[in-house]
Amino acid sequence: MMKISIIGAGYVGLVTGATFAKLGNEVILVDVVKEKVESINMGKSPIYEKGLDELLKGLVENKKLRATEDLESAILSTDISFVSVGTPSKEDGSIDLSYVFSAVEQIGEVLRKKDGYHLVVIKSTVIPGTTEKAGKTIEKVSGKKEGVDFGIAMNPEFLREGVALEDSLNPDRVVLGVKSKRDEEILKELYSPLNAPVLVVDPSTAEMIKYTSNAFLASKISFANEIANICERFGIDVEDVMKGVGMDHRISPYFLKAGAGFGGSCFPKDVKALISAAEEKGYDPILLKDVIEINDRQPLRMIELAEKYAGELKGKNIALLGLSFKPDTDDIRESRAIPLVKELLKKGANVIAYDPKAMENFKRLFPEIEYAKTAEKALEKADICMIQADWEEFKEIDYDKYPLKLIVDGRRTLKKDVKIPYAVIGKGKKGENY
């Protein structure tokens, strides 16, 4: 059993902490938000993530996990600290590392008072070289020597929101960016119950693996969307095309689903950060820039289809189903619903929105639009339905019951025969029942 503190109780920190606690370790989560700390200590997850509420409740009751606002006490009573704070984008797309270094400096201040070896692990997604700088910062602040009094390592996460707990408990690989055999052995022991393949590299390589993974997956999505937009012009269904392409073992079928584009807390932010980091090194990453440009355009394709078949959108009631960036999460960060709503409002449309989990979060951005209690309520007075996130419940709706003039399906959600006119991104003439 290890004693672990995790700085930052967001998606990654909370899921990581719950995983380590489930494996039998004692975990202390540290966060500056009082309400979040109180929620965790009541065994209730402050975020929606499948299976997390049930797991947290048991861990808190068994005293395997607790949360606190007191960073100092957490560091002093543990042997390993994971830094899992946010790394948002600045306005120019570069990464904001202020939260990481604020946490690192606070850890350094506490280590000045602490005896014994302490391992600090960066879990946040950071550009190459950040972990090295973090180690130097701790040395400066604490007066302790790296490699002797404390260790510094990088351990990227590869979690998918909506199934983050499953991914954390069943990882396809564990990447350890370490500088010493001592730190390597500590982390290998921590992860040993998971029986996952372990790759040991230096910290900068570990940082780059994370960015490269996300950039590649984002590129596959934008590539699929680019091909989808071409397929539409030829009257070809891109789904059939990608089925054939994905059968090639060199490519695989994953992340080749065309639609309204990618969002979330990782792909857009991380690709932009990698672009900025490359430019700082004097390299122009043309491909990565195109990945972002295609993704920025893609949700507007839904509006183009609506105007093509329903004419001017001014004054029309639009039922927007799905506000989260993907199903099974309440996360709206970089959701394609955001540019979609902005453009609909610009065109004078009336938006009636519904999402099973994300409406409260979305209301903070768009308090001016109407929100329905159910998908059915949103459809009752709508002229057009737009499906932005493919929640399972949207597949079961009998759309023909409602006075809709058009459905624009941005996520291949329609599974039943629909008599109402509809259009599907990347489906060509096969996706238009006119």
State the helix count: 16
Low-confidence regions: none
- Which fold name corresponds to the CATH topology of the largest domain? Rossmann fold
Shape: globular
CATH architectural category of the largest domain: 3-Layer(aba) Sandwich
Supply the helix-strand structural class.
alpha/beta
CATH superfamily of the largest domain: NAD(P)-binding Rossmann-like Domain
Number of domains: 2
Q: Approximately how much helix is present in the residues?
A: 40-55%
Secondary-structure blueprint:
Elements: E1 3-7, H1 11-22, E2 26-30, H2 34-41, H3 52-61, E3 65-68, H4 71-76, E4 80-83, H5 98-111, E5 118-122, H6 130-142, E6 150-154, H7 164-169, E7 174-177, H8 181-191, E8 198-201, H9 203-234, H10 238-246, H11 267-280, H12 286-297, H13 300-310, E9 317-321, H14 337-346, E10 350-354, H15 359-365, E11 370-371, H16 375-380, E12 384-387, E13 406-409, E14 422-424
Parallel strand pairs: 1-2, 1-4, 2-3, 4-5, 5-6, 7-8, 9-10, 9-12, 10-11, 12-13, 13-14
Give a written overview of the molecule.
- It is a single chain.
- The chain has 434 residues and is an alpha/beta fold.
- It folds into two domains: 3-201, Rossmann fold; 205-434, NAD(P)-binding Rossmann-like Domain (Rossmann fold).
- It has helices at residues 11-22, 34-41, 52-61, 71-76, 98-111, 130-142, 164-169, 181-191, 203-234, 238-246, 267-280, 286-297, 300-310, 337-346, 359-365, 375-380, and strands at residues 3-7, 26-30, 65-68, 80-83, 118-122, 150-154, 174-177, 198-201, 317-321, 350-354, 370-371, 384-387, 406-409, 422-424.
- Strands 3-2-1-4-5-6 form a six-stranded parallel β-sheet, with helices on both faces.
- Strand 9 (317-321), helix 14 (337-346) and strand 10 form a beta-alpha-beta unit.
- Helix 9 (203-234) crosses helix 11 and helix 9 (203-234) packs across helix 12.
- It starts with a strand and ends in a 10-residue tail after the last strand.
